[in-house]
Amino acid sequence: MFPTLARLSKASRLPLTPKRGNKDYYKGTRQAYLPGGHRTGAPGKHVVRGKAKYRLLDENVRFFVAPPVEEINGSMLRPYVDLSARLTSAQKREIFGKLPRGGMSGEYYYQKAPRRDIPEDLSQP
């Protein structure tokens, strides 16, 4: 029995992981990369002898500087949905005006749902 050409062509489509690579392949843990940016270097180094096998170096550890809270709160930028956002009564009428007072119920949905024509001989048991 011989493998088919289609079977062999799909073998290289699998993602390359350290388990699938050769014995020297190391993909990394991406700890030295910023989310959208450039490589900044490892935050520490491996130690051969000692209790800890990896030692963080203070001068290599990344830190992020954020603006003061007052400046963030005073900014025009807001999250996607602000927690303090409220609808006006006109906006509520525009959105919810077509629904009944109690909201969508089974009865209301049954009245509004589109129906296919049912033959009369099948409609009654």
From TrEMBL:
> Subcellular localization, per the record?
Mitochondrion
Name any one GO molecular function: structural constituent of ribosome
Enumerate the UniProt keywords alphabetically: Mitochondrion, Ribonucleoprotein, Ribosomal protein, Transit peptide
GO cellular-component terms in the record?
mitochondrial large ribosomal subunit
What Pfam families has UniProt attached to this entry?
MRP-L27
Q: Which superkingdom heads the taxonomic lineage of this protein's source?
A: Eukaryota
Cite the InterPro entries for this sequence: Ribosomal_mL41
Q: Name one GO biological process term.
A: translation
What does the similarity note say?
A: Belongs to the mitochondrion-specific ribosomal protein mL41 family.
Query: Could you identify this protein by its name?
Result: Mitochondrial ribosomal protein L27
The scientific name of the source species is Russula ochroleuca
